[in-house]
Amino acid sequence: MDLQQRVNSIPWYHSIDLGNGLVTPGRKSLELMKHEQGVFFDPVRLDGATVLDIGAWAGAHSFEAKRRGARRVMATDQYVWIHPEWRGREAFDLARNAIGSDVEAAEIDALDIKPDTIGRWDVVLFAGVLYHLRSPLDGLHAAASVANDCLIVESEAATKFLQSPEPLLAYHPSGSLRSDATNFFTPNVAFVVEALRECGFALFDTNVDGRRLTVHAWRNTTRRVLGNASAVQTRTTFSVWRRALARLKHEVRSR
Ligand SMILES: C[S@@+](CC[C@H](N)C(=O)[O-])C[C@H]1O[C@@H](n2cnc3c(N)ncnc32)[C@H](O)[C@@H]1O
Hints:
Blueprint: H1 3-8, E1 17-19, E2 22-23, H2 30-41, E3 50-54, H3 60-67, E4 72-77, H4 88-99, E5 104-107, H5 115-118, E6 121-127, H6 136-145, E7 147-156, E8 169-171, E9 185-187, H7 189-197, E10 203-209, E11 212-218, H8 240-253
The structure holds S-adenosylmethionine.
């Protein structure tokens, strides 16, 4: 089988440019992948960084982190990597070999991520995984435990109370979210921020785009890129100060 035939034999979630005109036919278009990667990585100084990608699937974001100058990148996953139909590990290996990338791989459940199992990383990406977990708080704490400088959390959002200052989770029983029985909970922005504040993060940049949210949680500002707002397609970006103000207003209103 040639490369094109091998690509065609696997279901793809990510569109990845393998070179020589060959792009994997992902459910996410190349344009969407680029947009997401801008949101995730433009605000982060990646040169020389170590990066962990939790729930990496075919590894597009891992490859992009490496392309942006990361020193060491590890892709981790489990559900789709061992799933007989999704064949995610095959997709990752095929793309990695075609690109000639040295991104590392580890098969591990997101809830088993901790310094003892996977080590500590400068930057951790936790994209599209949170709502698949039965214990989202444990998932956030696991990802936080291995992030030295920055944790990037991306998730489907609880749209009904997205901007509430109260930290809230919505439960989606029996496949009621997008007919996908592996979707359980969606958070609002405050939930992600407050859960990560408990884990010692000091500063938060948040970005809401339709039904998705992205939070950059910082323990320090070593890798935070400032003055790059136009590179991040933010509809809503606010700091802890604005969140504190919102909380204050809410408290005043409810008195
Ligand atoms: C919606 S995809 C997101 C893929 C990629 N991070 C992205 O943003 O394009 C969800 C990913 O999370 C992984 N995942 C779901 N539950 C997991 C778990 N308990 N442990 C590890 N990975 C998990 C799936 O295997 C899948 O690769």
